[in-house]
Inverse folding.
């Protein structure tokens, strides 16, 4: 690097203290114009906090921040925006009841005669922004809640780009994107790089980092461990720096499982426009995967089974007995729990404690003579927190103050604590680090091993393949085939999900 180079971002000795936690500890962090700089570290390492510092979320950070060589005080979101910082948050920040246009143009909605929104201009400007993320076809006046989680994530990026930032921070932008959408995003990032933007990219998905990053900084316990060119590091060296000790890559042992009684059977289940004529069963000790591209209808199917959305026809049998499920609480009463893919808006109450969140589905169980006692549930809470290694290990901490990965662990813990016989998991490890992912996988295997049935929906193909005994492939609302352990691989699932299962030898792909 020559001494004259002007850095897009130069943070020197920055720190941020929360009560009881020094989340960022004297960090130096530099980003050049036109580079993608990845930020890596375990859940709770301080990545989001460092980025929130640049986004102006804190008025009490210490240390110096320079943007394009100029010393700046980023004490408010408005100040950060004015200095060219654009932030795509880990947790979506879109307003659900508002339209795409109102979200994308927030704070700069074009008006006619000063009072009325200029609909035509709104439409044109929104479409212009949406085109930059490949979503030019969306209706600008559709509500955010009407579009998919994946589309919402890209809309969020479009919204940020609308302010023409010179530094773009993306905190786990791909955690809910399918492979095709990730490719699209990388195309967008490539373009932004060429325009000289500095891009900071947080992800737990290591293969992705090798694809997209030019340099990488590793954090641990609030401190910077180092910054490297991407070709100087390997997956193994990155993991070792993250966890702070040598790791060996021991293979997971696969044992032959014996399945028990049928726990859940679904016959001809249909919700018009979402899924059609779905039939399958899942047995005790079995992990059934559901694979498919985003938009195939997997989450909608899960929601239909647990009564979150009404179904039009079809039957559900629990342990052989036909059962009507009209709501998630009825599902729970019948031993079926569903972990949503959408933890912030549907899964967790961010303002209450870890303990209260975990106990929320168990209110009935812990209420006697009309009096609720959290005491009765305390041991359940501590047990799941310990198993899933929730940090900090204190049930009274407010969930909104946890790192993203730890929020995901609490969400899973909440459903595990209900001791379900059938657990349906939608993207169970979204946003968790490699270590936590293994912990969650162990929990899923333990649950199945104890005679329960687990259904896993995951866009993370290595995860789907590692966990499932059998994978149903879904496309355009229908089951189009099945792959059984032994024939399961990332390639076979991907081919099948794209409707090319016939290219696999006929006997391994039953449809
Ligand atoms: N508002 C807050 N109040 C108190 N503590 C907080 C707050 N926000 C974060 N922390 C703590 O600061 C530490 C760093 O959290 P941060 O969210 O920066 O981690 P992260 O590296 O982004 O993790 P993840 O990969 O799980 O998203 C954690 O110990 C977390 O519990
Ligand atoms: Mg984070």
């Amino acid at each position: 690097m020559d001494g004259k180079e002007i850095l897009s971002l130069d943070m020197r000795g920055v720190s941020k203290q929360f009560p009881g936690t020094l989340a960022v500890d004297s960090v130096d962090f530099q980003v050049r114009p036109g580079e993608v700089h990845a930020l890596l570290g375990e859940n709770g390492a301080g990545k989001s906090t460092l980025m929130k510092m640049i986004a102006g979320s804190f008025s009490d950070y210490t240390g110096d921040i320079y943007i394009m060589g100029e010393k700046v005080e980023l004490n408010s979101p408005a100040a950060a925006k004015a200095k060219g910082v654009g932030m795509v948050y880990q947790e979506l920040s879109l307003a659900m009841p508002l339209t795409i246009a109102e979200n994308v143009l927030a704070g700069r909605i074009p008006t006619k005669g000063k009072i009325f929104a200029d609909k035509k201009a709104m439409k044109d400007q929104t479409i212009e922004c949406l085109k930059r993320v490949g979503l030019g076809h969306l209706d600008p006046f559709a509500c955010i809640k009407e579009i998919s989680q994946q589309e919402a994530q890209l809309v969020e990026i479009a919204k940020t780009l609308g302010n023409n930032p010179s530094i773009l921070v993306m905190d786990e932008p791909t955690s809910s994107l399918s492979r095709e959408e990730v490719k699209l995003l990388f195309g967008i990032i490539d373009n932004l790089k060429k325009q000289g933007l500095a891009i900071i990219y947080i992800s737990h998905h290591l293969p992705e980092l090798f694809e997209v990053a030019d340099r990488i900084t590793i954090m641990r316990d609030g401190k910077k461990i180092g910054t490297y060119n991407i070709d100087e590091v390997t997956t193994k060296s990155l993991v070792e720096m993250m966890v702070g000790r040598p790791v060996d890559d021991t293979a997971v042992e696969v044992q032959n499982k014996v399945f028990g009684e049928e726990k859940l059977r679904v016959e001809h289940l249909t919700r018009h426009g979402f899924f059609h004529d779905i039939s399958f069963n899942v047995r005790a000790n079995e992990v059934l995967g559901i694979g498919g591209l985003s938009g195939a209808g997997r989450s909608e199917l899960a929601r239909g089974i647990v009564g979150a959305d009404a179904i039009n026809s079809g039957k559900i049998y629990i342990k052989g007995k036909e059962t009507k499920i009209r709501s998630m609480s009825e599902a729970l009463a019948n031993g079926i729990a569903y972990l949503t893919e959408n933890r912030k808006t549907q899964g967790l109450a961010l303002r209450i404690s870890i303990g209260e969140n975990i106990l929320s589905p168990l209110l009935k169980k812990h209420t006697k003579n009309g009096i609720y006692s959290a005491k009765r549930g305390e041991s359940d809470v501590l047990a799941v927190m310990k198993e899933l290694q929730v940090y900090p290990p204190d049930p009274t901490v407010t969930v909104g103050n946890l790192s993203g990965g730890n929020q995901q662990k609490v969400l899973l813990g909440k459903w595990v604590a209900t001791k379900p016989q059938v657990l349906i998991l939608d993207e169970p490890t979204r946003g968790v680090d490699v270590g936590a992912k293994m912990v969650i996988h162990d929990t899923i295997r333990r649950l199945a091993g104890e005679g329960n049935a687990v259904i896993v929906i995951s866009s993370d193909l290595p995860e789907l393949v590692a966990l499932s005994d059998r994978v149903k492939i879904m496309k355009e609302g229908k089951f189009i085939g099945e792959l059984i352990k032994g024939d399961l691989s990332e390639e076979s699932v991907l081919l099948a999900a794209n409707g090319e299962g016939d290219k696999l030898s006929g006997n391994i792909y039953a449809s």
The first strand starts at residue 9 and ends at 18.
